[in-house]
Amino acid sequence: MVQILDGKAMALQIKDEIANEVRALTAQGHRAPHLAAVIVGTDGASQTYVANKEKSSHEVGFTSSVYRMPESTTEAQLLETIEFLNNDPDIDGFIVQLPLPKHINEQKVINAISPDKDVDGFTPINIGRMVLGEECFVPATPMGICTLLKRYGIETAGKHCVVIGRSNIVGTPAANLLSRKGFDCTVTMCHSKTRNLAELTRQADILVVAIGKPEFVTADMVKEGATVIDVGIHRIPDESKKSGYRIIGDVKHSEVDAKCSWTTPVPGGVGPLTIVSLLQNTLQAYKRMSN
After folding, report:
1. Least crowded by CB within 10 Å, which of 115, 209, 232, 272?
2. Which active-site residues does the annotation give?
3. 96-154 tens-digit pLDDT
4. Contacts with 156 (C-beta within 8 Å, 6 or more apart), sequence order
């Protein structure tokens, strides 16, 4: 029978650990860690994510700031705000919520963030350090995947891990991290141009699905007894729900779960750990700045 990698329960546990640490720091007279977010425009999913980040920050005792900028914000204005945050000694880490409006160059904005405050782990310096196995801020979603595998005691050494998706936010860093010492997987990275995809995914002991297509992975693509990590999140209209939609992932769980030994639910799997990873990175940044 399939066992659940419960990201929600795991996130609560880690939040408790962070909150205890923050309480101990503030009891000694230190200020609380400070996490900021910059959001440009009114994208619904981005607003939800930033609201959750703010709520989670308060739950662990962090100070939280949100800089909300209109859709019409120029690239120069955004870069000015980033420069201000880079130089503010009271802010330990910050994120610029993606996607940005089309008239703003995302990579230029990411490159402007100080690597010491880049708690999203997106700057070239942090990505480079990660590839070299040096201390760095690891992107939040891949870090969440690694936390789930480690804390649930999933055996990874020598296992064949197949990652579907090659984005710089999830697929590429996840493949890198899982191949490194400590996880020691043999990793195959697949994407939209991969031939014989199902043939490769059927070989996976651990299958990480981050392709961004609703219910893309079906039972015939999964090996019996595999661990399946579903990173996808999609809103599908559903009139039977009070909200008017239901949330599904990149995996067709109704048929895939019966074949798995472990799987992540959607929602409640990788998602909650993405925000927790951001909090862990901020605490790390705070400690670095305090030393």
Report:
1. 115
2. 53, 97, 120
3. 999 999 999 999 999 999 999 999 999 999 999 999 999 999 999 999 999 999 999 99
4. 149, 178, 183, 184, 185, 206
- Contact at 8 Å (CB) between 214 and 232? yes
Please, is 289 exposed, middle or buried when counting C-beta atoms within 10 Å of its C-beta (0-12, 13-18, 19+)?
middle
- CATH 2.40.160.20 describes domain 29-114: no
The letter for the amino acid at 219 is: A
- Rounded CA separation 147/178 (Å): 11
| Chain segment 10-57, per-residue pLDDT in tens | 999 999 999 999 999 999 999 999 999 999 999 888 888 899 999 999
What are the structure tokens assigned to 259, written together? 């074949």
Q: Quick one: CATH architecture of 140-271?
A: 3-Layer(aba) Sandwich (3.40)
E strands within 17-147?
34-40, 63-69, 93-96
Instruction: At 242, list the tokens.
Output: 């009070």
Instruction: Give residue limits of the domains in the chain.
Output: 29-114, 140-271
DSSP state of 135: S
pTM score above 0.85: yes
